[in-house]
Amino acid sequence: MDIAQIKSAITAFFRRAIRMARSLASLPYFKTYLALSLVLTALFIVLTFPYGELITSRLKKMEGNAFTSIDIGYLDVGLIGDTTAEGISLVPPWGSELSIQSLILDGNINPYSLLISKDYHGSVRLKNLSYTSERIGFDSNINCNYELKFKSEGGSIESGSIKTFFENTTLKLNDVEIPSAEGMKISLPLMRFSSIVLNSSLKNDTLNIQQMKMSGPDLKCSLSGTVTFAKMMANSRLNLSLTIEDDSPAIEKYKDLLGSFTNADGDIVLNFTGSISRPGIGKKGPESEPGPENESRPRRRTRPRPGQEGGAESVDSLIPGMGTDED
Fold this sequence. Notes:
It is a single chain. The chain has 327 residues and is of the alpha+beta class. It is built from five helices and 13 strands. Strands 1, 2, 3, 4, 5, 6, 7, 8, 9, 10, 11, 12 and 13 form a 13-stranded antiparallel β-sheet that branches. The longest helix has 23 residues, at 3-25. Mean pLDDT is 77; it is low at 284-327.
């Protein structure tokens, strides 16, 4: 068969196809049936799209960077209704473990958001979240509202905001080193928090903690500052300031040891720098604009404590054993 015959066959095929299409278009209700078939095809694609496999594969890409391992026992992605997951286990590079009994997500999970817009918003509820390591124990139920925009390539977060509420929260610290007393360690008993509220925003892989207020019968404190995420989670950079109120019972017997970290109000201020795996501590923390929550608190007159005139302190690791990853 030569080129002329091939061209003739192709031309004849398209002519027959055009005649058939015209004859079909002349049939009654053709446009209705065509529109209905397109809608049903699109609906079939949306309902049978492998959302769970796509989400799991994206989480697995984080293994070796943010986490050593990520396991999910059960995942059910709901287009109409909530998305649920159970038996979640995350192991960070420094050897601790984060587990979540169940997760309920109410958000915009669909092919457009997953593949095109990379824009997510909604709420998530975490039941029985537990973080355990050699020296830290943390348990809580968490409700979170979020708006996140992911980068087109790489899967990292471009921008967003997160508001988080913690309920039934407990925290226990063991063998925490005191920078102002070489070799001295403290252990705080199980502390309960009646309320924890966290307002934060994200931009270009930097988490900005605008305000985190923690209140309970054992400890009252606040946290602010930034965390700049690295490809390896252990190397993420800290610039945080923790303020513990003077009248918190949990630290009563350690006030003298922490005397060099008190401010003019008598509160203890610990400023964290360095990486997550090798945090440092000092007196000069992240600079922030004075907010209403700070201006409204009356200044208290306090007695001077030993070491209050000392200079800035730093340590290679506030909580030893978290890891030895270098930046």
